């Protein structure tokens, strides 16, 4: 097949961007012709068997740029056998729903007046409606079951157009044999100047505020006040706003590492992942933590919370309670060997790398 993939912007640390590139590489490795259309490629040159077409940006505001990108990339569709978009653009064969339903989420954050008249939200909702309305022919990949319910409620989309995917993840996060795992763990801790016997938590996200980093910092500080010795360490991997950078800098045990490529080694260096996200349609990083062998605490909004429930049952309820999150973290630390073993047993029984193959098969079958 000659496949067109659309994504508005590519950068190497976004979850949606990683999902897109893993699919593109899998399709290319299966001898399909792959073209990625985007307005910018902020990364090293893509693999030689993938073409990248840069479509010039047009417009001033982000919503104008997205609307114009949609119009420009739609002109390419007739040149390809199959098309898939990872951003809300109508007219494609497939849409990968890496985010939750705008029509459901926006009213929780903005007034009806803003949603009706602000051009930014009008544009986003209009593009979404064109994909999900009953007259659209676009099939939809979803990463969590609640997405289907929300989209059908908002747009009366036909249920048969939805296809639930298994979790996706960076395969390099799969825990290696124990000797190598310990070697990489010790090496990462030495580089970070963290004692080998310290308990280390980790929070990962391109946007750490959205993933609840402030909640995590507050919890770590609370728990460390209870501990006379053996202070907890925290790895914050991703972008932090200035106020959280200042807050993190107040503690020697909190390590703000910025955006990093060595996530697999950092997961091995950690003992537990804390992910009390404010918004998370799925959460591939949760699967990557489980695959690396460390238990996870997450918020109820995370699409992949069922996997956390299956390994540790450490999921906060909504509305979010900082007190409950601290208590869950305390419980996890008090029972860390048990939760770690349960997580590793679960990881060995599940295949977290079937997503791209399933997507490709469904596209080839014309579903």
Class of secondary structure makeup? alpha/beta
CA gyration radius, whole angstroms: 21 Å
- How far apart the termini lie comes to 15 Å
CATH architecture title of the largest domain: 3-Layer(aba) Sandwich
The dominant shape is: globular
CATH class of the largest domain: Alpha Beta
CATH names the topology of the largest domain as: Rossmann fold
Strand percent estimate: 15-25%
Q: CATH homologous superfamily name of the largest domain?
A: Glycogen Phosphorylase B
Count of spatially separate domains:
2
Tally of helical runs:
15
Strand order of the largest sheet: 3-2-1-4-5-6-7
SSE string = EHEEHEEHHHEHEHEHEHEHEHEHHHH
What is the share of helical residues? 40-55%
Number of strands: 12
List the topology elements.
Layout: E1 2-6, H1 15-29, E2 33-38, E3 50-54, H2 62-74, E4 82-85, E5 94-97, H3 102-109, H4 112-117, H5 119-132, E6 139-142, H6 145-155, E7 162-164, H7 178-192, E8 200-207, H8 213-226, E9 233-239, H9 242-248, E10 254-258, H10 263-269, E11 272-275, H11 284-292, E12 296-298, H12 305-311, H13 322-334, H14 336-348, H15 355-364
Parallel strand pairs: 1-2, 1-4, 2-3, 4-5, 5-6, 6-7, 8-9, 8-11, 9-10, 11-12
Helix pairs in contact: 1-15, 2-5, 7-10, 8-13
Structure, explained:
The chain is α/β, with parallel strands linked by helices and 367 residues long. It folds into two domains: 2-166 and 354-364, Rossmann fold (3-Layer(aba) Sandwich); 171-348, Glycogen Phosphorylase B (Rossmann fold). It contains 15 helices and twelve strands. Strand 9 (233-239), helix 9 (242-248) and strand 10 (254-258) form a beta-alpha-beta unit. The protein is globular, with a radius of gyration of 21 Å. 40% of the residues are buried.
């Amino acid at each position: 097949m000659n496949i067109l993939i659309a994504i508005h912007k590519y950068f190497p640390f976004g979850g949606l961007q990683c999902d897109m590139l893993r699919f593109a590489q899998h399709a290319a490795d299966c001898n399909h012709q792959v073209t990625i259309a985007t307005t910018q490629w902020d990364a090293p040159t893509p693999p030689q068997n993938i073409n990248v077409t840069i479509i010039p940006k047009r417009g001033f505001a982000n919503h104008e740029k997205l609307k114009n990108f949609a119009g420009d990339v739609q002109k390419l569709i007739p040149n390809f056998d199959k098309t898939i978009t990872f951003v809300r653009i109508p007219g494609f064969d497939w849409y990968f729903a890496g985010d939750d339903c705008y029509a459901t989420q926006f009213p929780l954050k903005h007034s009806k007046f803003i949603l009706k008249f602000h051009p930014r939200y009008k544009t986003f909702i209009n593009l979404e409606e064109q994909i999900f309305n009953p007259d659209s022919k676009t099939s939809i990949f979803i990463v969590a079951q609640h997405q289907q319910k929300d989209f059908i409620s908002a747009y009366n989309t036909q249920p048969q157009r939805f296809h639930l995917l298994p979790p996706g993840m960076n395969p390099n996060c799969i825990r290696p044999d124990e000797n190598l795992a310990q070697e990489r763990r010790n090496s990462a801790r030495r580089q970070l100047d963290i004692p080998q016997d310290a308990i280390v938590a980790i929070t990962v996200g391109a946007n750490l505020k959205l993933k609840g980093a402030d909640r995590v910092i507050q919890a770590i500080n609370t728990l460390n006040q209870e501990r006379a010795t053996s202070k907890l360490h925290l790895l914050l991997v991703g972008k932090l706003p200035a106020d959280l950078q200042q807050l993190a800098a107040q503690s020697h045990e909190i390590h703000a590492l910025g955006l990093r490529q060595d996530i697999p080694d950092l997961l091995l260096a950690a003992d537990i992942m804390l992910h009390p996200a404010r918004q998370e349609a799925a959460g591939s990083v949760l699967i990557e933590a489980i695959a690396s062998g460390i238990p996870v605490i997450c918020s109820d909004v995370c699409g992949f919370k069922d996997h956390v429930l299956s390994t540790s049952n450490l999921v906060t309820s909504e509305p979010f309670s900082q007190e409950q999150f601290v208590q869950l973290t305390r419980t996890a630390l008090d029972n860390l060997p048990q939760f770690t073993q349960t997580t590793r047993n679960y990881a060995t029984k599940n295949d977290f790398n079937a997503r791209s193959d399933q997507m490709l098969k469904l596209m080839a079958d014309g579903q």
